[in-house]
Design a protein that fits this description.
- This protein has three domains: 242 residues, Up-down Bundle (Growth Hormone, Chain: A); 59 residues; 238 residues, Growth Hormone, Chain: A (Up-down Bundle), CATH 1.20.1250.20.
- Helices cover 77% and strands 0% of the residues.
- It is built from 19 helices and no strands.
- The chain is globular, with a radius of gyration of 24 Å.
């Protein structure tokens, strides 16, 4: 039964869905938008790129970490306080973060930072350019706290607005919108900054002719554009979500549990040093590990300890952040495990294309070195665009056939796609063929998004939908992070051993040795990437077995099926 009773004056559920999906798309877009323009950001702040690239990368990594952390508790908060209040609050936080990024060079803010260092910390403040960078990073983290929080609340709202037998399709739409956001972010950022560089002065002149003075558009404009769009969405959501019934969630907010799960996620991410963003732009197997910490082992031990303390707290308090007894539900536990494995498979798909392209263009016989970025984008689009489209189809199928069929069918397709890429990717395979094969994986993984999410949300009580929605998202992100870290360990060891086997011992001159080494590197890289695809096939096959544990259908779906058969 839905929490929400729509009045005659209230917008339809589908209109509400369209409004609340806009901020989800913008927040997902910002997840990857900065990676395309990070060097330009550093240069515009008058900082040396090589010296400050690691620090500036926190504008990317900090966003991803805060994005994941905010998911852990805002779902539960929306169960207690109300979806509308939390959703609008998260959107305000995102707007505030976007505004802070655009105000990085504000004299008043920087002057107050200087006073804080002198008067409170009794130390000399960082130089002005460094303060600019730190304000950009801080603004990005604040953005992420709002953006990440909106996703589980949006999923929970779908559970509130739609009856069980109609939830799969809108959940698929939310998944597609979120996927398209982070897929297009890198491309959008790069294209827009290039466009501003070529035509920015024309904009200034055009506005000048009508008596308006504007600054030359640059990377900051990307964040300025967030503000009016988000404000528009804020008023739209404020109007559309009026009259929502408050959830029946009881008890106090679990502060201690939230603290421990947050520490566990921070330790896991920093300890592994891997992220979907770092992997998506990897040029070598070493790049997969991202910005791994020298204290990785201790961070992982700390994460394990924090997670055990989290479990201890959740079993002892009256109103936990996550009621662990929920996992006794077969559909919820099977969907959670399958979702983790889907995240693992998605990471393999995301890292394979950039790696192979970059190894191929390093080959001295390659003619594609100038087109590497375009080719990588093509291949990743071959994975992610079909994934977004099939997420909607998977929702339609789930409404009619239940949870098991679209999930198992999707994972069967993904398994077949990974086998195809593992068998047929060679040093000279056409990029178009590779894109088509990756599309098979994308369609398969996309089909699982909606039925898995619907099974989890339908498995819990009305006042736990926010928690369940957060669980869906976090497990997928953790699966991706674990996959990238484990792939790094596997690929580095395997690559080195294969290169040693493939180097031509007959090469004697420097030129022959250089060419032989390059050929060996390419051949070894392709072999390792092939083996990664077979790992993906194994993991998706395991997910297929797990999906067979799903049972039942959303209410009314069984009736629809029996009518069709009759």
């Amino acid at each position: 039964m839905s929490l929400v009773k729509l009045s005659r004056q209230q917008a339809s559920p589908w209109a509400i869905l369209a409004i609340i999906c806009l901020p989800v798309f913008i927040g997902a877009l910002d997840l990857t938008i900065i990676s395309a323009v990070l060097p330009e950001v550093i240069v515009s702040l008058d900082l040396p790129v090589k010296e400050y690239l690691d620090q500036a990368s926190w504008a990317v990594n900090g966003y991803l970490l805060a994005y994941a952390i905010s998911m852990t508790f805002t779902g539960r908060l929306s169960d207690i306080v109300g979806r509308r209040t939390i959703y609008l609050g998260c959107l305000l936080v995102f707007i505030a973060g976007s505004y802070l990024v655009t105000m990085y060079d504000n004299p008043t803010i920087n002057s107050n930072i200087g006073k804080f260092y002198y008067q409170v910390l009794d130390r000399r403040p960082p130089r002005l350019e460094e303060r600019y960078l730190y304000l950009v990073i801080t603004g990005r983290i604040i953005q992420a706290l709002g953006a990440g929080a909106m996703v589980p609340v949006t999923l929970a709202l779908v559970g509130d607005l739609f009856p069980p037998h109609q939830r799969a399709k809108p959940l698929g739409i939310v998944g597609a919108v979120d996927t398209m956001g982070w897929v297009l972010g890198h491309l959008y950022g790069g294209v827009m900054v290039r466009f501003f560089g070529e035509y920015g002065d024309n904009f200034v002149d055009a506005f000048g002719k009508i008596g308006l003075t504007i600054a030359t558009p640059s990377w900051e404009t990307l964040f300025i554009l967030n503000i009016p769009l988000s404000v528009l969405a804020l008023f739209g959501a404020w109007w559309a979500l009026r009259g929502l019934a408050r959830p029946q969630g009881q008890g106090r907010f679990d502060i201690l549990g939230t603290l421990f799960i947050t520490l566990a996620l921070i330790g896991l991410n920093l300890g592994l040093g891997a992220s979907p963003e770092s992997a998506g732009s990897a040029e070598s197997f070493e790049d997969l590990q991202g910005s791994a910490s020298h204290y990785g082992f201790y961070l992982l031990m700390g994460a394990a300890l924090a997670f055990m303390l989290f479990l201890l707290v959740e079993t002892r308090i009256k109103h936990p952040l996550i009621r662990l007894s929920m996992f006794r539900n077969r559909n919820l536990s099977a969907s959670s495990a399958a979702n983790f494995l889907v995240g693992f498979c998605l990471a393999i798909g995301l890292v394979s294309a950039p790696l192979l392209v970059n190894f191929r263009v390093k080959d001295p016989d390659s003619e594609n070195i100038k087109h590497a970025a375009y080719i990588t984008g093509l291949l990743l689009s071959g994975l992610t665009v079909p994934m977004a489209v099939s997420a909607v189809y998977g929702g339609w199928l789930s409404d009619r056939r239940g949870y098991r069929f679209p999930t198992s069918a999707g994972l069967t397709l993904a398994t077949g796609g990974f086998i195809l890429t593992g068998l047929f990717w060679e040093t000279d395979t056409s990029y178009w063929i590779m894109a088509l094969q990756m599309a098979v994986i994308g369609v398969g993984l996309g089909m699982t998004i909606s039925p898995i999410g619907t099974a989890v949300i339908n498995a819990v009580n009305e006042h736990e939908r926010g928690v369940a929605s957060a669980l869906i998202l976090i497990l997928r992100l953790v699966g991706m992070t674990v996959a990238i870290s484990s792939l790094t360990i596997f690929s580095l060891e395997r690559f080195d051993s294969l290169v040693a086997q493939y180097v031509d011992p007959a090469a004697t001159t420097l030129e022959e040795i250089t060419k032989a080494s390059s050929k060996a590197n390419l051949k070894a890289a392709v072999r390792v990437i092939n083996e990664m695809q077979f790992i993906g096939a194994g993991i998706s096959g395991l997910g297929l077995l797990v999906s067979l544990l799903l049972r039942g259908q959303p209410e009314s779906a069984a009736v629809m099926t029996s009518q069709e058969q009759g």
